[in-house]
Amino acid sequence: MARPPRQLHLELSKRRYRDLLTKVIIPQMMFVSGETAEPSAETTTIIEEIVHTQVIEMLKRSTALATRRGSRSISTNDLFFLIRHDKAKLSRLVTFLSWKDVRKTAKDSDDKGGDAADIGGDDPLGGADGGPGAGGPVVGDTGKKNKRTKVTLPWDVSSYFSEQVPERDDEEDEEEEEMNEATIARLKTADERTKNMTREEYVHYSECRQASFTFRKAKRFREWAGFHLYTDSKPNDDIVDILGFLTFEIVQTLTEEALQVKAEEEMTKNRSGEADAQSKKRKRETGLFGEQEEGRTPVGPKHIQEAFRRLQVKPIPGRNRVWMGGPRSLQRTELRLI
To answer: How confident is the model over 315-332, as a mean pLDDT?
Structure first.
């Protein structure tokens, strides 16, 4: 029996989207995460399958949380609650959402006919630093218009009250200073990766940083994730944007862990003497540049699989395990979110 045309179109769209992920999007994300070599199709396919499983698990848990509070649709608070123990990731997500509102406000002002003086050009602060084009009263108005929106988490004390305390002018700077050590360490790592790049290499790096599962692909992302199978209502744009942010975090975490696995494997080979024989063989085959080519070996499927296994058993920061009686009580059977 022939399948309906709508089902065939959906399957074709999902297949094309998966090809885009495995051939373009995921390799770009891996490059930003430190993988300078070209990963194989098998490696990117494994990563795509892991990310797909993680997204489905997040949708299931978010739907369960929404059901417990008597709602049929998931909200941003449900996704916040899923990653509440990872303070570094939560901090990056809050920053991402706050700047998203700034960009949206500036774009809406531009669409309504506001000129460069009204929105401060491309600078979200609207020339508040006294640069070119900064005028007296316009600077103050623009700073208020394009000010970052404060994202309130569901467990914050301020979320319990209908009226909020007015924000101080220096409150934003204080929040930025309270970034946790994990976020600062990631920024330092990114700086180490890019400090020796040429201009062309950094342009390519900047383009790869724009890789996303959801940007201008929201409909295909919803079809790929199977939203209609796990949620009763259509998710809003914030839900899709948050999932797009988390998918990038999953790929980055997997790649960084896989690179560490690969480095440990090479160190073990060096100690056992296997690497010396392989190095001599490569020099005979590739000549002068054999040693450079050896350093560019990409991570393989086995490294990704081992990285995923380690991430499943690694303790969650800020979450304590409690003895509930019996050795089997400490064994995790559910999928852990990366």
So the answer is: 55
